[in-house]
Every structure is written in structure tokens, then in C-alpha cells.
Design a protein that fits this description.
The protein has 237 residues and is an alpha+beta fold. The chain folds into three domains: 54 residues, RNA-binding S4 domain (Structural Genomics Hypothetical 15.5 Kd Protein In mrcA-pckA Intergenic Region, Chain A), CATH 3.10.290; 85 residues, Alpha-Beta Plaits (2-Layer Sandwich); 77 residues, Pseudouridine synthase, CATH 3.30.2350.10. It has six helices and 17 strands. Strands 7, 8, 9, 10, 13, 14, 15, 16 and 17 form a nine-stranded mixed sheet that branches. A four-stranded antiparallel sheet has the order 3-2-5-6. Helix 1 packs across helix 2. The longest helix has 9 residues. The radius of gyration is 20 Å and the shape is elongated. It starts with a strand and ends with a helix.
């Protein structure tokens, strides 16, 4: 690092985590430069500085980038920890893949299953989670009653839920006999599909994410993890 850069960019480049995770570490007083506490996200540092995160010295490039796909089962939180000691997706990661800054790229609620990406590549997490990049996520949902054409029109037009205005990109009937549908989003509000469907007076019986961008769940078994291929990684950039 020949020029000064912001401490936030430095942390993300080091693979500590996403921009949100790194910003949180700074604001919580977990980051020091040359023994002095850093309190500003815009604080500038250079390669002459000694940076510590949670008491451990770090440097750009010291941690290899890890990119994983996971078939998340129900009953696991999409977070790195939980104050109620519930299991998280990081509990499913084999030791050989555990590196500093490994985080889930986006959320998938506790009662849902399916495709997730885990990585310490902060730039990739940002691209997957920020709505401006419009990366599609596809879900297979089972409902307690069928969707009418008017329901589908409401979903694609959108309406307000707890977290604000929401809409789906597409709805496709997979199996009318058991009320199975494919629903595509390009954003990730909390429990978005469940709340949108609830607004129609319908209940989601089961929800599984089957695609992120061009990456599909395929035959990856529940709880299994696999390294992403270069083509999969590049497809998200």
C-alpha cells in the first residue's frame, strides 16, 4: 500500500468482512492504528501503520480469499453469532475453510433453506447484497392455497410491507396441484417473500432459495458446503 487509504477500505481489502461488518468493528472500538483507537471510518492509514483488529495485528493480503456455497438447512441463523446460542451457518463450515472475516453474503431466514454464499471477500458481499447491483435470487415456495392471477399482479406491482415497499420480479407456477411456485427477487429485505405472501392472506408453508445470479443450488445436499469455481465467482462481479 503506497498511498494512504481509509481504514474501512483497508479492512475490507484484508478480508476481515463486508463493509457493514468492518464499519461496525470500527464504531465499536475494535480497531487501533499504532496503538491508538480509531473512531472514524474515513481515518487514513498507510503501510507504515500497525493495524490491530480485536487485539490481533492484520495486513492486506495476509488472509486468503475463501468463497463457499452452502445448502442451508432450516433451523440455522444467517449470521456469524447469536446471543441466544442458536446455531448459525458458520457452525456448518469445516475447519479448513474457517478464516477471519468469513460471513454470509445476505440473509436467509431461520425457517428457510437453500443456497447461501459464505465468503471473506468484502467486495463480493457488497455486490451480492446491495440492491443497486440487482443480482437475482430465485426461491421455490410452497403455499397453503393457490395464487390467483390478481395475486401475481399485486406481487409484481409491489406494495408496502414492514420493511418498506417491496415487489417481486417474476412469479412462475411450478406445480399447481400442490401450490408450488418460483419467485424471483433482486433485493433482500428481511422475510420479504413471506411478508408479501402474507399480505395476500396466504401462508408460506416452505421456502427454499435455489439460485443467486447464475449460481444454482443444483444437487448440493442439505448442510453441504463446496468451494465456488472461478466462473461462479466471476459471474457475480
Amino acid at each position: 500500500m503506497e498511498q494512504e487509504i481509509s481504514v474501512l477500505k483497508y479492512l475490507v481489502s484484508s478480508g476481515i468482512g463486508s463493509r457493514r461488518v468492518c464499519a461496525s468493528l470500527i464504531m465499536k472500538g475494535e480497531v487501533k492504528a499504532n496503538g491508538q483507537l480509531i473512531t472514524s471510518l474515513k481515518h487514513l492509514i498507510s503501510n507504515h501503520d500497525l493495524l490491530e483488529v480485536s487485539g490481533q495485528q492484520i495486513s492486506i493480503g495476509q488472509t486468503k480469499k475463501v468463497h463457499l456455497i452452502l445448502n442451508k438447512p432450516k433451523g440455522y441463523l444467517s449470521s456469524v453469532s447469536d446471543d441466544r446460542n442458536r446455531p448459525t451457518v458458520l457452525d456448518l463450515v469445516p475447519e479448513k475453510y474457517k478464516v477471519p472475516g468469513l460471513v454470509p453474503a445476505g440473509r436467509l431466514d431461520y425457517l428457510s433453506s437453500g443456497l447461501m454464499i459464505l465468503t471473506n471477500d468484502g467486495d463480493l458481499v457488497y455486490r451480492i447484497t446491495h440492491p443497486k447491483f440487482k443480482i437475482e435470487k430465485e426461491y421455490l415456495v410452497f403455499l397453503d392455497k393457490p395464487l390467483l392471477e390478481s395475486d401475481i399482479q399485486k406481487l409484481t406491482r409491489g406494495y408496502k410491507i414492514e420493511s418498506g415497499f417491496a415487489r417481486v420480479l417474476a412469479v412462475k407456477t411450478i406445480n399447481r396441484s400442490n401450490n408450488q411456485y418460483s419467485i424471483v427477487l433482486n433485493e433482500g429485505k428481511k422475510r420479504e417473500i413471506r411478508l408479501l405472501i402474507k399480505g395476500l392472506g396466504i401462508h408460506v408453508k416452505d421456502l427454499q432459495r435455489v439460485r443467486i445470479g447464475q449460481i444454482r443450488l443444483g444437487r448440493l445436499a442439505s448442510m453441504d458446503i463446496a468451494p465456488m469455481t472461478k466462473l461462479q465467482i466471476e459471474s457475480l462481479r
